[in-house]
């Protein structure tokens, strides 16, 4: 079978997405996994990549964009190597998540959602992480960090 070229995607990405598609009848069902595959290689999904994935899945870019927007762990703009998600659900909010976010952004000199100048970090909100009894809570990459204080922020950022 002739391999089609989907501009903007690497052959490794195309192979992985095709392998994922072989498990499903409905190509829409593969859309999140396909976006995650692209994100694994690039850390975020550009417009060019989103259009290429839509072509590969034979769905419209608008449909795929809707999926990407709904799923808040797909990043549509460049992000740092480590994403720090701070929980902004009610318990964390009551116990200072706004201050945690302000402290993280101030130390990194970034706005929420922006990548730090050294490309290391991006700060983003996330819903309840299920550790409300240790609020406020953040996820540093895959690591859950509890009872966050300004000292903890300094320690997380190595300052
Ligand atoms: S509200 Fe933040 S962990 Fe539940």
Structure description:
This protein is α+β, with helices and mostly antiparallel strands and 159 residues long. It has 2 domains: 60 residues, Arc Repressor Mutant, subunit A (Orthogonal Bundle), CATH 1.10.10; 75 residues, Glutaredoxin (3-Layer(aba) Sandwich). 43% of the residues lie in helices and 11% in strands. The chain has 7 helices and 4 strands. A 4-stranded mixed beta sheet has the order 2-1-3-4, covered by helices on one side. Strand 3 and strand 4 form a beta hairpin. The longest helix has 12 residues. The model has no long low-confidence stretch (mean pLDDT 93). The structure holds FE2/S2 (inorganic) cluster (FES). FE2/S2 (inorganic) cluster binds next to helix 5.
Task: From the structure above, extract its key features.
four-stranded mixed beta sheet; Glutaredoxin; 159 residues; elongated; 43% helix; binds FE2/S2 (inorganic) cluster; alpha+beta
| SSE pattern, N- to C-terminal | HHHHEHHEEEH
Report, as a whole number of angstroms, the end-to-end distance: 55 Å
Q: Give the CA-based shape.
A: elongated
Give the biggest beta sheet. Answer: 4 strands, mixed
Q: What's the CATH H-level superfamily name of the largest domain?
A: Glutaredoxin
Helical residue percent band: 40-55%
Tell me the structural class: alpha+beta
- What is the overall number of helices? 7
Note the beta-strand portion.
5-15%
The bound ligands are: FE2/S2 (inorganic) cluster
Strands across the major sheet, in which order?
2-1-3-4
Number of domains: 2
| Rg, nearest Å | 18 Å
What is the name of the CATH architecture of the largest domain?
A: 3-Layer(aba) Sandwich
Q: What is the typical, i.e. mean, pLDDT?
A: 93
